[in-house]
Amino acid sequence: MSGAAIPRDPRAVAAAEGGFVMPERLYSARLVLERLGPEHFDLFASLWGDAETARFIGGQRDPAGAWTFLAIFAGQWALYGFGHYAIAERNGRYLGFAGLWFPVDWPEIEIGYGLLPDARGIGYAREAVQTVRDAAFVAGAPGLVSYIAPQNLPSQRVAQSVGAVHEATIALRGLPAMVMRHATPGAGSRASNLSEGAVA
Predict the structure, then answer these.
(1) 131 and 64 in contact (C-beta within 8 Å)?
(2) Where do the N-acetyltransferase domain residues begin and end (predicted)?
(3) Mind listing the domains of the chain with CATH numbers?
(4) Interatomic CA distance for residues 169 and 173, integer angstroms
(5) Burial annotation 132-164 (CB, 10 A radius, 16+ → b, else e)
(6) CA separation, residue 28 to residues 50, 135, 192, 198 (Å)
(7) Cα(71)–Cα(189) distance, integer angstroms
(8) In a 3-state reduction of DSSP, which class is residue 195?
(9) Global pTM?
(10) pLDDT tens readout for residues 21-79
């Protein structure tokens, strides 16, 4: 693991600044993924209010801190045309978030995700990540990774379940991060994701 700053992938920068735009709503078999907005504040307050949930996504925060994360995540949509989504069941119950993240010190575009405790263990994270990944490649993403702390075994399992492979371990903001590389899905995967109206 190198402590030196890793340059941003020029292909990722070009995509982010050059019109790579994600749909504002995605669908999977069980889930609806919605572009983040103020209506998702209670979800973020719950996510960042739980110490175990927030451990690897910036640490536990009070409601004001959770609002800051919501504003940052929602704001990236205005900057790039892509970002995180709120994950909901078809009945409207919110479960967590998943989507794309590309701050200025990230080498590549990342798929990130987090779920509330009662939404774990039933494949929702895998389903959301697969949906985001497939839609991102259809929209023109040049490559996708997930940066995962070595201690975050549940997140590693989610990445592995959708075929991501551990490529390297790097330093991000002074902490080790496993680079889990997402392979470009085949044409069949792309077609199946769009068959139910993934682009709204």
Answers:
(1) no
(2) 31-185
(3) 10-143 (3.40.630.30)
(4) 13
(5) bbbbbbbbebbbbbbbbeeebeebbebbeebeb
(6) 27, 11, 9, 7
(7) 32
(8) coil
(9) 0.89
(10) 999 999 999 999 999 999 999 999 999 999 999 999 999 999 999 999 999 999 999 99
Alpha carbon distance 186, 200 (integer Å): 22
* Planar angle of CA 87, 109, 156, nearest 5 degrees: 65
Residue 180 has which token pair? 């889990």
Burial 13-35 (b: 16+ CB within 10 A, else e): bebbeeebebbbebbbeebbbbb
Say how far apart CA 12 and CA 22 lie, in whole Å. 14
Helical packing angle, 124-139 and 187-194, nearest 10° = 100
Q: What is the pLDDT of residue 3?
A: 54
Tokens of 85: 């989504």
- Cα–chain center distance at 128: 9
Residue labelled with tokens 């085949």: 186
Which amino acid is present at 61?
R
Measure the CA dihedral 171/174/178/182, to 10°: -80
Residue bearing tokens 């030196």:
4
